[in-house]
Protein backbone atom coordinates (compact mmCIF):
# COMPACT_ATOMS: atom_id res chain seq x y z
CA UNK A 1 0.00 0.00 0.00
CA UNK A 2 2.68 2.54 0.97
CA UNK A 3 4.85 2.30 -2.15
CA UNK A 4 1.91 2.65 -4.53
CA UNK A 5 0.65 5.64 -2.63
CA UNK A 6 4.05 7.35 -2.41
CA UNK A 7 4.58 6.75 -6.12
CA UNK A 8 1.16 8.28 -6.83
CA UNK A 9 1.99 11.31 -4.69
CA UNK A 10 5.32 11.70 -6.44
CA UNK A 11 3.67 11.67 -9.90
CA UNK A 12 1.10 14.17 -8.68
CA UNK A 13 3.79 16.42 -7.19
CA UNK A 14 5.85 16.41 -10.38
CA UNK A 15 2.79 17.44 -12.42
CA UNK A 16 1.49 19.97 -9.93
CA UNK A 17 3.89 20.90 -7.12
CA UNK A 18 2.56 22.90 -4.17
CA UNK A 19 3.20 26.63 -4.43
CA UNK A 20 6.70 27.70 -3.44
CA UNK A 21 8.01 24.15 -3.10
CA UNK A 22 10.27 21.94 -5.14
CA UNK A 23 11.60 18.45 -4.73
CA UNK A 24 15.36 18.26 -4.33
CA UNK A 25 15.54 14.50 -4.00
CA UNK A 26 13.25 11.49 -3.83
CA UNK A 27 15.80 8.72 -3.68
CA UNK A 28 15.14 6.40 -2.01
CA UNK A 29 11.43 6.84 -2.63
CA UNK A 30 10.72 6.68 1.12
CA UNK A 31 12.91 9.74 1.84
CA UNK A 32 12.28 13.06 0.18
CA UNK A 33 14.09 16.36 0.51
CA UNK A 34 11.95 19.41 -0.26
CA UNK A 35 13.03 22.98 -0.80
CA UNK A 36 10.50 25.49 0.44
CA UNK A 37 10.54 29.21 -0.28
CA UNK A 38 9.22 31.40 2.51
CA UNK A 39 5.75 32.73 1.64
CA UNK A 40 5.63 36.15 -0.06
CA UNK A 41 2.78 37.63 1.90
CA UNK A 42 1.75 37.22 5.49
CA UNK A 43 -1.13 38.08 7.78
CA UNK A 44 -0.37 41.82 7.80
CA UNK A 45 1.53 42.56 4.61
CA UNK A 46 4.76 40.94 3.47
CA UNK A 47 5.65 37.70 5.21
CA UNK A 48 8.55 37.59 7.68
CA UNK A 49 10.13 34.78 5.68
CA UNK A 50 9.78 36.16 2.15
CA UNK A 51 13.56 36.25 1.56
CA UNK A 52 14.23 32.85 3.15
CA UNK A 53 14.51 29.36 1.71
CA UNK A 54 14.32 26.22 3.80
CA UNK A 55 15.03 22.54 3.31
CA UNK A 56 12.77 19.86 4.68
CA UNK A 57 13.26 16.17 5.24
CA UNK A 58 10.29 13.85 4.73
CA UNK A 59 10.47 10.19 5.73
CA UNK A 60 7.64 7.80 4.94
CA UNK A 61 7.12 4.63 6.96
CA UNK A 62 5.72 1.27 5.87
CA UNK A 63 2.48 2.32 7.57
CA UNK A 64 2.01 5.36 5.32
CA UNK A 65 -0.60 6.78 4.68
CA UNK A 66 -2.28 5.32 7.76
CA UNK A 67 0.61 6.78 9.76
CA UNK A 68 1.82 10.32 9.20
CA UNK A 69 5.15 10.93 7.50
CA UNK A 70 8.03 12.21 9.60
CA UNK A 71 8.54 15.81 8.51
CA UNK A 72 11.16 18.21 9.81
CA UNK A 73 13.16 21.19 8.69
CA UNK A 74 16.83 20.56 8.06
CA UNK A 75 18.58 23.22 10.21
CA UNK A 76 18.77 26.15 9.93
CA UNK A 77 15.01 25.91 10.46
CA UNK A 78 12.63 28.88 10.21
CA UNK A 79 12.55 30.94 13.39
CA UNK A 80 8.93 30.40 14.33
CA UNK A 81 7.05 29.92 17.57
CA UNK A 82 6.12 26.32 16.65
CA UNK A 83 9.41 25.25 15.06
CA UNK A 84 12.36 24.18 17.20
CA UNK A 85 16.00 24.97 16.29
CA UNK A 86 16.60 21.30 15.50
CA UNK A 87 13.88 21.40 12.87
CA UNK A 88 11.14 19.63 14.82
CA UNK A 89 7.70 21.06 14.03
CA UNK A 90 4.74 21.14 16.37
CA UNK A 91 1.82 20.78 14.00
CA UNK A 92 -1.17 18.56 14.70
CA UNK A 93 -1.45 17.03 11.23
CA UNK A 94 2.03 15.53 11.67
CA UNK A 95 0.79 13.30 14.52
CA UNK A 96 -1.88 10.64 14.36
CA UNK A 97 -4.99 10.32 16.48
CA UNK A 98 -3.30 8.13 19.12
CA UNK A 99 -1.00 11.10 19.84
CA UNK A 100 -3.87 13.63 19.84
CA UNK A 101 -2.98 14.71 16.34
CA UNK A 102 -5.03 15.21 13.24
CA UNK A 103 -3.18 13.28 10.56
CA UNK A 104 -5.48 11.47 8.15
CA UNK A 105 -4.83 9.34 5.07
CA UNK A 106 -6.77 11.95 3.08
CA UNK A 107 -3.78 14.29 3.52
CA UNK A 108 -0.76 14.27 1.24
CA UNK A 109 2.75 15.70 1.41
CA UNK A 110 1.54 18.48 -0.86
CA UNK A 111 -1.11 19.45 1.66
CA UNK A 112 1.38 19.24 4.52
CA UNK A 113 3.65 21.67 2.63
CA UNK A 114 0.76 24.08 2.09
CA UNK A 115 -0.07 23.93 5.80
CA UNK A 116 3.54 24.63 6.73
CA UNK A 117 3.75 27.60 4.37
CA UNK A 118 0.50 28.89 5.79
CA UNK A 119 1.94 28.46 9.31
CA UNK A 120 4.90 30.61 8.25
CA UNK A 121 2.66 33.16 6.52
CA UNK A 122 0.54 33.76 9.60
CA UNK A 123 3.54 34.29 11.90
CA UNK A 124 3.87 37.83 13.24
CA UNK A 125 7.10 37.42 15.16
CA UNK A 126 10.32 35.57 14.49
CA UNK A 127 10.88 33.74 17.74
CA UNK A 128 11.52 30.21 18.96
CA UNK A 129 9.14 28.11 21.07
CA UNK A 130 9.61 28.44 24.82
CA UNK A 131 12.07 25.82 26.09
CA UNK A 132 13.71 25.48 22.67
CA UNK A 133 17.22 24.83 23.98
CA UNK A 134 16.16 22.32 26.61
CA UNK A 135 14.00 20.53 24.04
CA UNK A 136 16.79 20.32 21.48
CA UNK A 137 19.25 18.96 24.05
CA UNK A 138 16.78 16.39 25.24
CA UNK A 139 15.79 15.16 21.77
CA UNK A 140 19.23 15.18 20.21
CA UNK A 141 19.33 12.76 17.28
CA UNK A 142 15.78 11.67 17.92
CA UNK A 143 12.79 11.67 15.62
CA UNK A 144 10.03 14.22 16.29
CA UNK A 145 7.73 11.22 16.35
CA UNK A 146 9.26 10.29 19.68
CA UNK A 147 7.96 13.49 21.19
CA UNK A 148 4.55 13.75 22.79
CA UNK A 149 3.04 16.97 21.53
CA UNK A 150 0.20 19.05 22.83
CA UNK A 151 -1.82 21.07 20.39
CA UNK A 152 -3.76 24.06 21.59
CA UNK A 153 -2.87 27.09 19.51
CA UNK A 154 -5.21 27.59 16.59
CA UNK A 155 -3.91 31.01 15.58
CA UNK A 156 -0.43 30.54 14.17
CA UNK B 1 -12.45 19.52 2.41
CA UNK B 2 -11.12 22.08 0.06
CA UNK B 3 -8.24 20.45 -1.72
CA UNK B 4 -5.04 22.33 -1.19
CA UNK B 5 -6.67 24.84 1.07
CA UNK B 6 -3.78 26.05 3.17
CA UNK B 7 -5.86 26.86 6.20
CA UNK B 8 -3.48 26.57 9.09
CA UNK B 9 -3.68 23.30 10.93
CA UNK B 10 -3.55 23.48 14.64
CA UNK B 11 -0.14 23.84 16.10
CA UNK B 12 1.52 24.52 19.35
CA UNK B 13 4.83 25.15 20.99
CA UNK B 14 4.51 22.79 23.87
CA UNK B 15 6.57 19.91 22.65
CA UNK B 16 8.29 19.61 25.96
CA UNK B 17 5.26 19.81 28.17
CA UNK B 18 4.29 16.20 27.95
CA UNK B 19 5.23 15.46 31.50
CA UNK B 20 2.65 17.84 32.87
CA UNK B 21 0.60 16.16 35.52
CA UNK B 22 2.37 12.86 35.33
CA UNK B 23 5.50 13.64 37.22
CA UNK B 24 5.47 17.20 38.56
CA UNK B 25 3.64 17.08 41.84
CA UNK B 26 0.99 19.73 42.31
CA UNK B 27 2.96 21.35 45.13
CA UNK B 28 6.07 21.52 42.98
CA UNK B 29 4.15 23.15 40.21
CA UNK B 30 2.55 25.65 42.52
CA UNK B 31 5.75 26.55 44.30
CA UNK B 32 7.58 27.04 41.04
CA UNK B 33 4.77 28.87 39.37
CA UNK B 34 4.39 31.25 42.29
CA UNK B 35 7.78 32.82 41.57
CA UNK B 36 7.20 33.54 37.94
CA UNK B 37 4.94 35.87 36.04
CA UNK B 38 2.11 33.80 34.68
CA UNK B 39 1.91 32.92 31.04
CA UNK B 40 -1.01 34.43 29.28
CA UNK B 41 -3.82 32.35 27.92
CA UNK B 42 -4.05 28.62 28.05
CA UNK B 43 -0.38 27.75 28.11
CA UNK B 44 -0.18 26.65 31.72
CA UNK B 45 1.55 23.43 30.81
CA UNK B 46 4.22 25.21 28.88
CA UNK B 47 4.89 27.61 31.71
CA UNK B 48 5.69 24.79 34.08
CA UNK B 49 8.22 23.36 31.71
CA UNK B 50 9.73 26.73 30.92
CA UNK B 51 10.41 27.27 34.58
CA UNK B 52 11.86 23.83 34.94
CA UNK B 53 14.15 24.64 32.08
CA UNK B 54 15.29 27.83 33.80
CA UNK B 55 16.20 26.08 36.99
CA UNK B 56 18.96 23.49 36.63
CA UNK B 57 18.42 22.01 40.08
CA UNK B 58 14.77 21.35 39.49
CA UNK B 59 15.50 20.26 35.96
CA UNK B 60 17.94 17.59 37.07
CA UNK B 61 15.57 16.30 39.70
CA UNK B 62 12.82 16.19 37.11
CA UNK B 63 14.89 14.54 34.44
CA UNK B 64 16.03 11.74 36.71
CA UNK B 65 12.56 10.89 38.02
CA UNK B 66 10.22 11.41 35.10
CA UNK B 67 9.80 9.00 32.24
CA UNK B 68 11.04 10.35 28.94
CA UNK B 69 8.73 10.89 25.97
CA UNK B 70 10.29 7.87 24.32
CA UNK B 71 9.52 5.69 27.34
CA UNK B 72 5.95 6.93 27.52
CA UNK B 73 5.39 6.31 23.83
CA UNK B 74 6.96 2.86 24.05
CA UNK B 75 4.59 2.05 26.89
CA UNK B 76 1.58 3.32 24.96
CA UNK B 77 2.60 1.20 21.99
CA UNK B 78 2.96 -1.85 24.21
CA UNK B 79 -0.56 -1.31 25.57
CA UNK B 80 -1.95 -1.03 22.05
CA UNK B 81 -0.12 -4.16 20.96
CA UNK B 82 -1.47 -6.17 23.89
CA UNK B 83 -5.01 -4.91 23.15
CA UNK B 84 -4.54 -6.03 19.57
CA UNK B 85 -3.45 -9.47 20.74
CA UNK B 86 -6.57 -9.90 22.82
CA UNK B 87 -8.89 -9.36 19.88
CA UNK B 88 -8.22 -9.05 16.18
CA UNK B 89 -9.94 -6.27 14.27
CA UNK B 90 -12.95 -8.61 14.07
CA UNK B 91 -13.71 -11.54 16.38
CA UNK B 92 -15.61 -14.79 15.90
CA UNK B 93 -19.35 -15.23 16.31
CA UNK B 94 -20.24 -15.74 19.96
CA UNK B 95 -23.55 -16.50 21.64
CA UNK B 96 -25.09 -13.63 23.57
CA UNK B 97 -24.58 -15.64 26.74
CA UNK B 98 -20.88 -14.79 26.46
CA UNK B 99 -21.80 -11.14 26.81
CA UNK B 100 -24.01 -11.90 29.79
CA UNK B 101 -21.09 -13.60 31.55
CA UNK B 102 -19.06 -10.41 31.24
CA UNK B 103 -21.52 -8.58 33.46
CA UNK B 104 -22.44 -11.36 35.87
CA UNK B 105 -20.23 -9.98 38.58
CA UNK B 106 -21.19 -6.41 37.77
CA UNK B 107 -24.25 -4.62 36.65
CA UNK B 108 -27.55 -6.33 37.17
CA UNK B 109 -29.25 -3.91 34.78
CA UNK B 110 -26.90 -5.02 32.02
CA UNK B 111 -27.57 -8.69 32.66
CA UNK B 112 -31.35 -8.14 32.61
CA UNK B 113 -31.09 -6.15 29.41
CA UNK B 114 -28.91 -8.74 27.71
CA UNK B 115 -31.43 -11.45 28.65
CA UNK B 116 -34.24 -9.40 27.16
CA UNK B 117 -32.20 -9.12 23.95
CA UNK B 118 -32.05 -12.86 23.60
CA UNK B 119 -35.54 -13.06 22.12
CA UNK B 120 -34.50 -10.87 19.17
CA UNK B 121 -30.80 -11.65 18.81
CA UNK B 122 -28.98 -14.95 18.90
CA UNK B 123 -25.34 -14.00 18.73
CA UNK B 124 -22.75 -11.28 18.35
CA UNK B 125 -19.34 -10.61 16.92
CA UNK B 126 -16.92 -8.34 18.70
CA UNK B 127 -14.70 -5.80 17.01
CA UNK B 128 -11.58 -4.18 18.35
CA UNK B 129 -12.09 -1.05 20.41
CA UNK B 130 -9.67 1.09 18.49
CA UNK B 131 -11.97 3.96 17.61
CA UNK B 132 -12.78 2.44 14.21
CA UNK B 133 -15.27 -0.08 15.58
CA UNK B 134 -18.39 1.51 14.09
CA UNK B 135 -16.97 1.55 10.57
CA UNK B 136 -15.54 -1.94 10.84
CA UNK B 137 -18.67 -3.45 12.42
CA UNK B 138 -20.86 -1.78 9.84
CA UNK B 139 -18.99 -2.92 6.74
CA UNK B 140 -18.37 -6.40 8.08
CA UNK B 141 -22.02 -6.98 8.99
CA UNK B 142 -23.26 -5.48 5.74
CA UNK B 143 -20.97 -7.56 3.55
CA UNK B 144 -21.50 -10.71 5.59
CA UNK B 145 -25.24 -10.60 4.89
CA UNK B 146 -24.60 -9.93 1.19
CA UNK B 147 -22.23 -12.89 1.02
CA UNK B 148 -24.40 -15.22 3.06
CA UNK B 149 -27.55 -14.48 1.05
CA UNK B 150 -25.77 -13.96 -2.27
CA UNK B 151 -27.96 -10.88 -2.70
CA UNK B 152 -26.83 -9.78 -6.15
CA UNK B 153 -29.51 -7.10 -6.54
CA UNK B 154 -28.29 -5.30 -3.43
CA UNK B 155 -24.69 -5.88 -4.48
CA UNK B 156 -25.36 -4.24 -7.84
CA UNK B 157 -27.04 -1.32 -6.15
CA UNK B 158 -24.19 -0.66 -3.73
CA UNK B 159 -21.48 -1.06 -6.37
CA UNK B 160 -23.27 1.52 -8.54
CA UNK B 161 -23.55 3.75 -5.49
CA UNK B 162 -19.81 3.40 -4.75
CA UNK B 163 -18.89 4.19 -8.37
CA UNK B 164 -21.04 7.31 -8.22
CA UNK B 165 -19.01 8.40 -5.20
CA UNK B 166 -15.79 8.64 -7.23
CA UNK B 167 -16.63 12.00 -8.87
CA UNK B 168 -18.44 13.18 -5.77
CA UNK B 169 -15.35 12.55 -3.60
CA UNK B 170 -13.25 14.55 -6.04
CA UNK B 171 -15.77 17.41 -6.09
CA UNK B 172 -15.55 17.46 -2.29
CA UNK B 173 -11.79 17.96 -2.54
CA UNK B 174 -10.39 14.46 -2.10
CA UNK B 175 -7.56 13.80 -4.51
CA UNK B 176 -8.17 10.63 -6.48
CA UNK B 177 -4.82 9.23 -5.38
CA UNK B 178 -5.90 9.11 -1.74
CA UNK B 179 -8.93 6.90 -2.32
CA UNK B 180 -8.69 5.13 -5.70
CA UNK B 181 -6.96 1.94 -4.49
CA UNK B 182 -9.19 1.53 -1.45
CA UNK B 183 -12.35 2.10 -3.49
CA UNK B 184 -11.27 -0.51 -6.02
CA UNK B 185 -10.49 -3.03 -3.29
CA UNK B 186 -13.97 -2.62 -1.86
CA UNK B 187 -15.68 -2.83 -5.25
CA UNK B 188 -13.60 -5.87 -6.30
CA UNK B 189 -14.64 -7.76 -3.20
CA UNK B 190 -18.29 -6.99 -3.85
CA UNK B 191 -17.97 -7.85 -7.53
CA UNK B 192 -16.65 -11.31 -6.74
CA UNK B 193 -20.16 -12.29 -5.63
CA UNK B 194 -21.95 -14.19 -8.35
CA UNK B 195 -18.67 -15.24 -10.02
CA UNK B 196 -17.01 -18.64 -10.01
CA UNK B 197 -14.92 -17.54 -7.06
CA UNK B 198 -17.20 -15.55 -4.83
CA UNK B 199 -16.09 -13.94 -1.60
CA UNK B 200 -16.85 -16.23 1.33
CA UNK B 201 -17.58 -15.29 4.93
CA UNK B 202 -14.25 -16.87 5.83
CA UNK B 203 -12.40 -14.63 3.35
CA UNK B 204 -14.36 -11.63 4.52
CA UNK B 205 -13.15 -12.41 8.05
CA UNK B 206 -9.59 -12.73 6.79
CA UNK B 207 -9.83 -9.46 4.86
CA UNK B 208 -11.29 -7.48 7.72
CA UNK B 209 -8.62 -8.95 10.02
CA UNK B 210 -5.81 -8.16 7.62
CA UNK B 211 -3.37 -5.54 8.87
CA UNK B 212 -3.38 -3.74 5.56
CA UNK B 213 -6.79 -4.37 3.95
CA UNK B 214 -8.88 -3.74 7.03
CA UNK B 215 -7.57 -0.21 7.76
CA UNK B 216 -7.76 0.56 4.05
CA UNK B 217 -11.48 -0.20 4.00
CA UNK B 218 -12.08 1.81 7.18
CA UNK B 219 -10.13 4.70 5.65
CA UNK B 220 -12.36 4.55 2.57
CA UNK B 221 -15.54 4.62 4.64
CA UNK B 222 -14.25 7.58 6.62
CA UNK B 223 -13.69 9.54 3.44
CA UNK B 224 -17.19 8.70 2.20
CA UNK B 225 -18.56 9.74 5.57
CA UNK B 226 -16.69 13.03 5.44
CA UNK B 227 -17.77 13.73 1.88
CA UNK B 228 -21.43 13.05 2.70
CA UNK B 229 -21.27 15.42 5.70
CA UNK B 230 -19.59 18.16 3.65
CA UNK B 231 -21.94 17.80 0.70
CA UNK B 232 -24.89 18.24 3.05
CA UNK B 233 -23.16 20.73 5.31
CA UNK B 234 -26.28 22.79 5.94
CA UNK B 235 -28.09 19.72 7.24
CA UNK B 236 -25.24 18.49 9.43
CA UNK B 237 -23.95 21.84 10.72
CA UNK B 238 -26.43 22.17 13.62
CA UNK B 239 -25.46 18.69 14.85
CA UNK B 240 -21.76 19.42 14.61
CA UNK B 241 -22.06 22.76 16.34
CA UNK B 242 -21.26 22.33 19.98
CA UNK B 243 -19.64 18.91 19.61
CA UNK B 244 -16.19 20.42 19.76
CA UNK B 245 -14.60 23.71 20.71
CA UNK B 246 -11.97 23.29 18.06
CA UNK B 247 -14.03 22.47 15.02
CA UNK B 248 -16.17 25.42 14.14
CA UNK B 249 -16.91 24.60 10.52
CA UNK B 250 -18.20 21.46 8.86
CA UNK B 251 -14.93 21.09 6.99
CA UNK B 252 -12.83 21.40 10.14
CA UNK B 253 -15.03 18.86 11.90
CA UNK B 254 -14.58 16.36 9.09
CA UNK B 255 -10.84 16.86 8.89
CA UNK B 256 -10.38 16.53 12.60
CA UNK B 257 -13.04 14.04 13.73
CA UNK B 258 -14.11 12.01 10.69
CA UNK B 259 -11.14 11.45 8.39
CA UNK B 260 -8.40 10.56 10.92
CA UNK B 261 -8.25 6.85 11.76
CA UNK B 262 -9.19 6.04 15.33
CA UNK B 263 -11.57 8.96 15.89
CA UNK B 264 -14.70 7.59 17.48
CA UNK B 265 -18.05 7.73 15.76
CA UNK B 266 -21.03 9.70 16.92
CA UNK B 267 -24.59 9.94 15.61
CA UNK B 268 -23.42 12.33 12.90
CA UNK B 269 -20.98 9.76 11.53
CA UNK B 270 -23.64 7.04 11.51
CA UNK B 271 -26.30 9.15 9.84
CA UNK B 272 -23.81 10.23 7.17
CA UNK B 273 -22.47 6.75 6.38
CA UNK B 274 -25.87 5.09 6.22
CA UNK B 275 -27.08 7.93 3.97
CA UNK B 276 -23.94 7.84 1.81
CA UNK B 277 -24.43 4.15 1.06
CA UNK B 278 -28.21 4.06 1.48
CA UNK B 279 -28.03 1.21 3.96
CA UNK B 280 -30.55 1.20 6.82
CA UNK B 281 -29.20 -0.03 10.16
CA UNK B 282 -30.49 -0.65 13.67
CA UNK B 283 -28.41 0.15 16.75
CA UNK B 284 -29.27 -1.50 20.05
CA UNK B 285 -28.17 0.62 22.99
CA UNK B 286 -27.00 -1.31 26.00
CA UNK B 287 -26.38 1.00 28.92
CA UNK B 288 -27.30 1.37 32.56
CA UNK B 289 -30.33 3.56 32.09
CA UNK B 290 -33.57 1.92 33.08
CA UNK B 291 -36.27 2.52 30.51
CA UNK B 292 -39.58 3.71 31.90
CA UNK B 293 -42.80 2.05 30.90
CA UNK B 294 -43.43 -1.37 29.53
CA UNK B 295 -40.70 -3.87 30.22
CA UNK B 296 -39.40 -1.68 33.02
CA UNK B 297 -35.69 -1.61 33.56
CA UNK B 298 -34.92 -4.50 31.25
CA UNK B 299 -36.20 -2.84 28.07
CA UNK B 300 -33.40 -2.02 25.65
CA UNK B 301 -33.46 1.12 23.55
CA UNK B 302 -33.03 0.65 19.83
CA UNK B 303 -32.60 3.29 17.20
CA UNK B 304 -33.08 2.84 13.48
CA UNK B 305 -30.96 4.88 11.11
CA UNK B 306 -33.07 4.80 7.98
CA UNK B 307 -31.88 6.84 4.99
CA UNK B 308 -34.66 8.79 3.26
CA UNK B 309 -34.47 6.52 0.22
CA UNK B 310 -34.89 3.38 2.32
CA UNK B 311 -38.20 4.07 4.06
CA UNK B 312 -39.93 0.79 4.79
CA UNK B 313 -36.79 -1.29 4.25
CA UNK B 314 -35.90 -3.36 7.31
CA UNK B 315 -32.43 -2.78 8.77
CA UNK B 316 -29.68 -4.60 6.90
CA UNK B 317 -27.18 -4.30 9.73
CA UNK B 318 -27.71 -4.67 13.47
CA UNK B 319 -25.13 -3.21 15.82
CA UNK B 320 -24.79 -3.39 19.56
CA UNK B 321 -23.71 -0.16 21.23
CA UNK B 322 -22.18 -0.11 24.65
CA UNK B 323 -20.89 3.27 25.80
CA UNK B 324 -17.92 4.00 23.55
CA UNK B 325 -18.08 0.81 21.48
CA UNK B 326 -19.90 -0.96 18.64
CA UNK B 327 -20.12 -4.71 17.95
CA UNK B 328 -22.13 -6.72 15.42
CA UNK B 329 -25.42 -8.35 16.42
CA UNK B 330 -27.11 -11.28 14.68
CA UNK B 331 -30.91 -11.29 14.70
CA UNK B 332 -32.62 -14.46 15.82
CA UNK B 333 -34.00 -16.34 12.87
CA UNK B 334 -37.68 -15.65 12.38
CA UNK B 335 -39.79 -18.29 14.07
CA UNK B 336 -40.30 -21.15 11.63
CA UNK B 337 -43.81 -21.26 10.18
CA UNK B 338 -45.96 -23.71 12.07
CA UNK B 339 -45.78 -27.05 10.34
CA UNK B 340 -49.15 -28.61 9.76
CA UNK B 341 -49.43 -31.98 11.44
CA UNK B 342 -48.29 -34.60 9.03
CA UNK B 343 -51.23 -36.46 7.66
CA UNK B 344 -51.07 -40.15 8.03
From TrEMBL, chain A:
Highest taxon above the source species: Eukaryota
Domain called UBC core: residue spans: 1-156
Name of the protein this chain belongs to: UBC core domain-containing protein
SMART domains: UBCc
InterPro entries linked: Ub_conjugating_enzyme (IPR050113), UBC (IPR000608), UBQ-conjugating_enzyme/RWD (IPR016135)
From TrEMBL, chain B:
PROSITE patterns referenced in this protein's UniProt entry, alphabetically: OTU
Domain of life: Eukaryota
EC number: 3.4.19.12
Chain ranges of the OTU domain: 122-332
Keywords tagged on the record: Hydrolase, Protease, Thiol protease, Ubl conjugation pathway
Sequence segments annotated as region (Disordered): 1-22
Catalytic activity: Thiol-dependent hydrolysis of ester, thioester, amide, peptide and isopeptide bonds formed by the C-terminal Gly of ubiquitin (a 76-residue protein attached to proteins as an intracellular targeting signal)
Gene3D superfamilies given in the database record: Peptidase C65 Otubain, subdomain 1, Peptidase C65 Otubain, subdomain 2
Molecular function terms, GO-annotated: cysteine-type deubiquitinase activity; ubiquitin binding
Protein's GO biological process: protein K48-linked deubiquitination; proteolysis
GO CC entries: nucleus
Segments of skewed composition (Polar residues): 8-22
Class of the enzyme per the UniProt entry, highest EC level: hydrolase
SUPFAM superfamilies: Cysteine proteinases
Family in the record: Belongs to the peptidase C65 family.
Name recorded for this polypeptide: ubiquitinyl hydrolase 1
Amino acid sequence: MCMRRIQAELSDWLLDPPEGCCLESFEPLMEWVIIMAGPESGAYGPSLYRDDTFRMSVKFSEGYPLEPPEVLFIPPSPVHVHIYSNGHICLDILSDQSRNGGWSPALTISKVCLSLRSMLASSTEKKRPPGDLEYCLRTRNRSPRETRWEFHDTTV
Amino acid sequence: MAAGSPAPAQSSHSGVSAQRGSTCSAEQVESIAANVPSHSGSCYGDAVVDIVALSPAVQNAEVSSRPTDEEIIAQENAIRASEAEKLGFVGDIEPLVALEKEYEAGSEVFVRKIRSLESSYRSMRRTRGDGNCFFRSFIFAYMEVLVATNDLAERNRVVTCLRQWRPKLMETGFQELVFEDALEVLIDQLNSLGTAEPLTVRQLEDNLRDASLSPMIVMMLRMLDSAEIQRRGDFFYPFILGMSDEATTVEQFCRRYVEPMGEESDHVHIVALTDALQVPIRVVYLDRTAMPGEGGSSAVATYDFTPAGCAGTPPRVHLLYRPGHYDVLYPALPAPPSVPAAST
